[in-house]
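Support request, priority: normal
Reporter: lab tech (M.K.)
Component: structure prediction queue

Hi team, I submitted a job for Putative Asp/Glu racemase from Hyaloscypha bicolor E yesterday, and the status page still shows it as pending. I've pasted the exact input below so you can check whether something in the sequence is tripping the parser. The sequence length should be 249 residues. Please let me know if I need to resubmit or if it's stuck on your end.
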Amino acid sequence: MPKRIRVGILTPSSNTALEPLTCALLASFNTQQSTYHITAHFSRFPVTTISLSPSGLAQFELAPILHAAELLAHAEVDIIGWSGTSAGWLGFDKDVTLCEEIEKVTGIKATTSVLALNKALELWGVKKLGLVTPYQADVQAKIAENYTGIGVLIGESMERHLGVVKNTDIAKTGEEVLDGLVGEVVGGGVDAVTTFCTNLVAAQRVEFWEKKYGVPLFDTVTTVVWDMLRECGVHAKELEGWGMIFQKG
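Reply from support: The job had stalled in the queue. We restarted it manually and it finished. Here are the results:
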């Protein structure tokens, strides 16, 4: 019998992309091996827009997120992951604090898309990062500033953004648009690229981009799953179809 592991995932309330993508990734993993059977369980808290306005920033206060985490704890999940990128503009310390508080409240280890991405950047030795997001210019600038602070350069030629505020509109971004944006940032001379938003329908396209451009592509729906599996002692190095990040599981 395969070992059963439950991963709990915190989800922005208006996100329509991360749940089907996460389930598809885990279904691939479960099909490709027989040692583990991983299931994902989701809990939402209110997020409808992405901006630096007071109301936009207030969506990521601790209390509602911790309440959602407590509900995941009712399912006795093995780990909790925040599948979201708000620490990109709020500061990475916000996710460190969030994980500490989740563990304090639930007794369950926690990670996030952004902290997982940063682990991947370190493992791969990335110093020049291509950044593809749906966000506004001021949000994009904060993300680039925060990465500069940890020694990862995101220059003008290395970033592209779409200027979208309403979260439900982000998931409407088509593959042809993402193909163009990824190609443009790769042309900026990067070590890796991140599709940085868990409401972008991008994770399924990662392997295509990696084969085309020869650089790792770290999607933030994928990064949190990768790190949750690692923290649960699950190595997915043989997983096919979801990117080279799993080679360093």
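The chain has a mean pLDDT of 96. The beta strands are 3-12, 36-45, 79-82, 110-112, 129-133, 159-161, 192-195, 217-219. Let us know if anything else looks off. Ticket resolved.
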